[in-house]
From TrEMBL:
It comes from the Bacteria. Keywords: Hydrolase, Signal. CDD domains: HAD_like. Pfam families: HAD. The keyword Iron does not apply. Residues 1-28 form the signal peptide. GO terms for molecular function: hydrolase activity. This is Haloacid dehalogenase-like hydrolase. It comes from Bradyrhizobium cytisi.
C-alpha cells in the first residue's frame, strides 16, 4: 500500500509538472499582436523587441532607456476627412458664433458658418491656427478639459457614425500594450493640442497625461475668487510638429527614443532624431492603403501628407506598415 501511495504521489507531481510546462509553453506562444498579419512588418517589430530586451544580448537596452514615441493623428486614430481637433474647433466656432456676429463675413469663419464643408476641409495652416486661437482660448484649463470631454462624448465621425475615441487602430493599441509589457515607456508626440489630448489618452491608449507631448497655446496663472487657475490665452506657445517634435521630445522626456512611429511628413524629423544614432533603433510609418476599411492616401493628401517621409523610409530602412496588407482589422469594432 505504501509503494502504491508513493507511486500515486509521484504520478501526481509529474502530471502537475507536465501541466505547468504546457501552461507556460502555451503562454509563451500567445500572440501579443493578434490583429497583425504574419508579414515581415510584424516580424520586424517582434525581432526588434526581442533584441533590445534580451538580457546579456549584444543589443540589450536597459528599461529606463526603452522609450517609444507615437504620433497621434493618422498613427493611432483617424485623421480623415480632417483632423479630429479641427472638427472640434469647427463645432466650437458654430457654438460661439452668436456672440461674434462679425464672423459671418470674415474668413475662414464665414465658410464654416455657411456650411461650406469643402472650404473648411481645405483650410491652410494659418487658417487653422487662427481658428484654434479663437475657439480654444479665453477659459481655464479645467474648463477647456470639460468642453473637450463633453464634445467627445457626443460628437460622431461623419463616415463611421461612431465616437472618435472608437476610431482608434486596434493593431496600434496592441503594439502600445506589447511594448509596455516589455518594459517600454510609451509617449504620444503629436502636432495636435496637448490639452486637447490629455483628457482622454489614458483611458483610450493607456498613455498617461504626463506622457503626452503636443502643441500648446500660452497660459498664465490667475487667482479667481480665491481659487488658483491656469487661464488659456489666444497666443501660440509651441508647435509640436516637424522640427518641433525632436525639441519637444528632448524638453519633456530628456532621452532619445529607440523607437518611433508616425504616418506623415510631420513625423519625419522625429523619425530621424530617433533612428539616426548609435545602437539598435526602430522607425515605422503607417501607410494608409485601405480605402475600403479606412482611407487610402499619401503624397497628395491635404491632411497627413506622406511624401518626403515615404521616400526617407527607404533610405533609412524604416518599416512601412501597409494598412491593407499588415492589419487583419483596423478598428476594435471590426469583425474578426
Amino acid at each position: 500500500m505504501k509503494c502504491k501511495s508513493l507511486s500515486m504521489i509521484a504520478g501526481g507531481i509529474l502530471g502537475l509538472a507536465l501541466g505547468l510546462t504546457w501552461s507556460f509553453s502555451a503562454l509563451a506562444q500567445v500572440d501579443p499582436l493578434p490583429s497583425w498579419n504574419a508579414t515581415p512588418t510584424k516580424q520586424a517589430i517582434v525581432e526588434f523587441v526581442g533584441r533590445v530586451t534580451k538580457v546579456g544580448g549584444p543589443d540589450f537596452v536597459a528599461p529606463a532607456e526603452r522609450i517609444a514615441t507615437f504620433d497621434n493623428d493618422g498613427t493611432l486614430w483617424v485623421e480623415q476627412p480632417m483632423y479630429v481637433q479641427l472638427a472640434f474647433a469647427l463645432d466650437r466656432l458654430r457654438a460661439m458664433a452668436p456672440l461674434h456676429p462679425d464672423w459671418s463675413y470674415m474668413e475662414p469663419f464665414q465658410s464654416v458658418l455657411e456650411g461650406d464643408v469643402k472650404a473648411s476641409a481645405k483650410m491652410d495652416e494659418h487658417d487653422i491656427v487662427q481658428l484654434i486661437m479663437m475657439t480654444h482660448a479665453g477659459m481655464t484649463t479645467d474648463e477647456f478639459s470639460k468642453i473637450v470631454t463633453d464634445w467627445l462624448t457626443t460628437a460622431r465621425d461623419p463616415r463611421f457614425k461612431r465616437p472618435y475615441t472608437e476610431l482608434v487602430y486596434q493593431p496600434m493599441l496592441e503594439l502600445l500594450s506589447y511594448l509596455r509589457a516589455n518594459g517600454f515607456k510609451t509617449f504620444i508626440v503629436s502636432g495636435g493640442g496637448v490639452e486637447f489630448m490629455r483628457p482622454w489618452t489614458e483611458k483610450v491608449y493607456g498613455v498617461a497625461p504626463e506622457q503626452v507631448i503636443g502643441s500648446s497655446i500660452k497660459t498664465n496663472f490667475q487667482m479667481r475668487d480665491g481659487i488658483p487657475t491656469l487661464f488659456r490665452l489666444p497666443d501660440l506657445n509651441f508647435i509640436d510638429d516637424k522640427v518641433g517634435k525632436p525639441v519637444g521630445i528632448n524638453e519633456t522626456i530628456g532621452r532619445r527614443p529607440i523607437a518611433a512611429f508616425g504616418n506623415s511628413d510631420g513625423d519625419l524629423e522625429m523619425l530621424q532624431w530617433t533612428t539616426i544614432s548609435d545602437g539598435v533603433r526602430f522607425g515605422a510609418i503607417v501607410h494608409h492603403t485601405d480605402a475600403v476599411r479606412e482611407y487610402a492616401y499619401d503624397r497628395q493628401s491635404h491632411f497627413g501628407r506622406l511624401d518626403v517621409a515615404l521616400d526617407a523610409a527607404v533610405a533609412n530602412r524604416w518599416t512601412v506598415i501597409d494598412m491593407k496588407k499588415d492589419w487583419k482589422v483596423i478598428f476594435p469594432f471590426d469583425p474578426r
